[in-house]
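Hey, I was hoping to borrow your eyes for a little while. No rush at all, and the record is pasted right below:
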Amino acid sequence: MGKINAPGIKRNWTLKCDDFAGCRERVSSLAADIGYSEIFTQIVINRGFDTKDAASDFLEKRTESFYDPFIMADMDKAVERIAEAVKKKEKIVIYGDYDVDGVTSVSVLKLYLDSVGADASYFIPSRFSDGYGLARGTIDNLINDGVQLIITVDTGITACDEVAYASSRGVDVIVTDHHECREVLPAAVAVVNPHRNDCNYPFKELAGVGVIFKLVCALECYFNSDKKPIDSIRRICYEYCDLVSIGTVADVMPIIDENRLIVSLGLGILNQKQRTGIEALVTAANSGDGSDGRTSKINKNKKITSGYIGFTLAPRINAAGRISDATVAVELLLENNPVKAHSLARELCDINRRRQEEENKITEEASQKIAVECDTENDRVIVLSDENWHQGIIGIVASRISEKYGKPTILISFEGGDNSIGKGSGRSVGDINLVDALSNSQDLLLKYGGHALAAGLTIDKSTLENFKKCINHYVENTYPDGSGIPSLVAELEVEPQDMTMDLAKELYALEPHGVSNPAPLFMMRNMSVYDILPIGSNRHTKLTLGRDDISFPALCFGTTARELDIMRGDCVDIVFSIDINEYQNVKTLQLIVRDIALSDADRTVYEKHSSLYRSIMQDGKALSADDIIPTREEFAAAYTALRRDRYEGVDTCGFRTLSMNSGVGMIKLRFIMDIFSEMGLVDYYPENDEIFKYGLRDSSVKVDLTRSKILNELKKKLSS
């Protein structure tokens, strides 16, 4: 792999194949053997399949097969106890989690138990009134309702006290989970979790719904012992892999081994025949506003991929548990009546819109806190807290921040009646195991748990500052070389003529995508910016990029034109994926930009300005006052440009864009922003060397800029 260091980009860029031309002969031979293009073949080689047989097995998914579910520890005990409950018509409650994994887990097990005649219901705790996982009060309520067996799904692995309490009240508990196990397991009738130290199951990375899938397969084999096990497993796949694939993708599980097979089968079902609730959700999502049952012409025939699950279906299912009631999502997945299903789907879309609004608000507030509270150069973990952040949203925002800065991020909400106790949600990056990091700080936490890349915690406000120091110290010492911080990895460098519709269609053969089998990224250099257009209420940006008489539409999601700080006529390098856009039955190729940077020539000019600014700040060397001392007119021009942008709702800008809009040189603008901030005219939050967020203060108050310490220091440095 070759690393490309480009200042100003979000991350370092790494190429899996940094000498495609040198590999051409070997790639060409394998491409002829498997019947694909050379670029596609290089991607297959990058994934470790460099022979005809290995590549064919990977592409045709012959490398994966389902393992015997009874290999999993305690599976036999779980099956026997559930079968007994079904036979005796005991009341069973499925106790789930409120995320997509939990919702699909509840749905799959409920559908299956209903099919075998069980007396089964479900319960998903409220994130706000009940909290996460098993709780004694809820157990009491279930017992009062006559429940005799509780089956946890996607939760329960750390609920030792609660399971013991249920047992003392005469209720059996079966725990099914996939989260990291502690040293002591709950004393349940059965604990089914592939992460158990004593579990010999060969694949450990199942989602919670994946564990339920294996449980249902085992039950089907038990209830149909006169049939071949493979026939029972095939039936379960056909009945439930659509839901299992949604939960697996949504929980960001590695799409390898059994997960790859599950998601492949699930996508096949989703693209052929959708259950009523899923069809209603797809229709509502594709209709744009979800206000009616019509499918838009644009997306009517859009292929459902793992990306569509991750970015369209999963957020809507997840939104219910985040800010409302997860049972809405379960009822949708269980619903067979199209009218009721469409009503529930529209409700989920409405909830999701409210979630987006709250997410944007918290993201903005978190960005301002980062500028004031964090040292993004040296902090290894970003930890932020607030008393007004919605507990159900902070996990999504933590994910956005960790993606932006390439660092583990934990957001903590002290929202609620007792605001001395906070609930936090964290996301990690690269090789940094967040659960291990939290475990190292467990003396400072009231509760914690989760996965390597996503975890939750409960903390007392009095220990927050010590926790920040402790977790940063742990990550710094455990990953001293920064190995846990990921680069943006592209497959290879390509030319515009390489990006074709045929290649885009070939890439479908690599599906399903996800962790460990990501959608391929490419790198292109020296692309001219022909056009820049804000889209999606200015939340996203559409570029037109081209070279060699070839041009492409290029979408930058979640990034405004001002945040890009790119202008027409610039020459840029990009890391991107390719996508097929369909509009009015016309298909076109478009680029999805993951990162963008000025190309060498333009970047050299920008670096010169940045370097000179830093040099002046340090030792005062400058050619003349014209280089650094702003005039009254230049102060006014810069402030007018900032005020005009704020009037239009813009709060993020780049120095190059501000320079173009104000006519003031970039070095002077850096000093102007420092002076505006010092004198209380502007709230100024630099995000990096190029981009800053800002807010304007009360402009009715007269400010004498000549009294600025920064300005007078500059003048002194110059005169000396």
Notes: The radius of gyration is 28 Å. The chain has a mean pLDDT of 87. The domain at 2-58+488-598 is CATH 2.40.50.460 (OB fold (Dihydrolipoamide Acetyltransferase, E2P)).
